[in-house]
Amino acid sequence: MTGKLPFDSVVAEHGSTVLRVCRAVLGPADADDAWSETFLAAMRAYPDLPADANVEAWLVTIAHRKAIDVTRADARRAVPVAETPDTAPQIASAPAGGADPGLDDDLTDALKHLPAKQKQAVAYHYLGGLPYSEVADVLGGSTDAARRAAADGIAALRRTLGGPGSGPAAETSATGAAGPARTRTSRSTSTERSAR
Amino acid sequence: MSSSDLARDLIRAFPDDPGHLARLHGQLAAAAQRDGILDVAYRTIDSPVGPLLLAATEQGLVRVAYASEGHDAVLQALADKVSPRILSAPGRLEAAARELGEYFAGDRRAFDLPLDWRLSAGFRRAVLSHLPDIGYGRTASYSAVAQLAGSPRAVRAVGTACATNPLPVIVPCHRVVRADGSMGRYLGGTEAKRTLLTLEAAA
């Protein structure tokens, strides 16, 4: 008995985390493709994965590569004008399965405009739940560099969302803006992951 | 707003979406099938003998399991013995589910499905391969089956073969009973055996 779980259990356990990471890094429109490519590649390689491997880190690593592939494919498909940096004003239509209005929109929007490395570090650490040492393995570079990229990313997000010191006021308005979304269910389970 | 608040808000900005994930899962199963890496597909069906797990390789139906066997344990055993590339993928089990539905409705007397026998070997497999010879609605004793399999004295081994049948219902080990006519044991429980024999007697 090898004890390796049926791949279906891997999808059940990590599917939502990988989707969250893909959405954070690529935005909702391309996230589905990256998710599908990630799990298809993972399933192909799964029988050879060492039994003691960290499955989540492995999946995030694959997702990272697939996200790069998707980004490159987009770039090839795009008309020359699209050479403008990521910070170009986004198209208004919110793709299906996208974020909530209010705070959530502000956050996903702010995230989208982070430099790639910061965005990836934030996504893999805070959404993927990887320790910085593993974020570093995914991104290449040192653990310190990964930690710094995530910290810079978080600082930039905080600046975009109202900055430090604007505490209670920002909190209140943000909460108000996100009001309708609070009725949404199935969030608490994922919150625990971020505790790492 | 602290870092941990922001991290929490980040996760909240990308909420779980079970319906969307289910669609992605379905697409993954289709892509895996297309690419030839869906080594084992499974689904469960409801039946008069409780929920049945059905699993198939590309060769055919490889496993039918009663709830009493523990479906998670059965899937883990499939991962260990066949391949861990297992997905819930109802498509490949469509014919099996349909034929079983017809059988339980009393509208089908024999199954016409490709079977993958890899979970049974040697004498056990020889025994099981003879069981469809016991016609629908009939029974045979363990010793009669031993004779059918060409080893009249291997009565106990016939019992073991039946108890480890990877394809119950489809391969009718429920039709093997004691010489005195009493039902004897059954891997799905005696109640399930009674249900199947009653169903076949009535149809």
Q: What distinguishing features does this structure have?
A:
heterodimer, A: mainly alpha, 9 helices, 64% helix, globular, disordered C terminus, B: 203 residues, alpha/beta, 4-stranded mixed sheet, two-stranded parallel sheet
How would you characterize the overall build of this protein?
With 196 residues, chain A is mainly α. Chain A contains nine helices and no strands. Chain A has helices spanning 7-26, 28-45, 55-77, 103-112, 116-127, 132-139, 143-160, 167-177, 188-193. The longest helix of chain A is centred in the middle third of the chain and has 23 residues, at 55-77. Chain A is globular, with a radius of gyration of 18 Å. Chain A starts with 6 loop residues before the first helix and ends with a helix. In chain A, 38% of the residues are buried. The model of chain A is unreliable at 81-100 and 165-196 (pLDDT under 50). With 203 residues, chain B is α/β, with parallel strands linked by helices. Chain B is built from eight helices and six strands. A four-stranded mixed beta sheet of chain B has the order 3-2-1-4, with helices on one face. Chain B has a two-stranded parallel ribbon with strand order 5-6. In chain B, a hairpin with a 6-residue loop joins β1 and β2 (52-56). The model of chain B has no long low-confidence stretch (mean pLDDT 94). The interface between A and B is large, with 56 and 39 residues.
Question: What is the strand and helix layout of this fold?
Answer:
The complex is a heterodimer of chains A (196) and B (203).
Chain A: H1 7-26, H2 28-45, H3 55-77, H4 103-112, H5 116-127, H6 132-139, H7 143-160, H8 167-177, H9 188-193
Helix pairs in contact in A: 1-2, 1-3, 1-5, 2-3, 3-6, 4-7, 5-6, 5-7, 6-7
Chain B: H1 3-13, H2 18-34, E1 40-45, E2 52-56, E3 61-66, H3 71-81, E4 86-88, H4 94-104, H5 122-130, E5 140-141, H6 142-148, H7 155-163, E6 176-177, H8 190-202
Parallel strand pairs in B: 1-4, 5-6
Antiparallel strand pairs in B: 1-2, 2-3
Helix pairs in contact in B: 5-7, 6-7
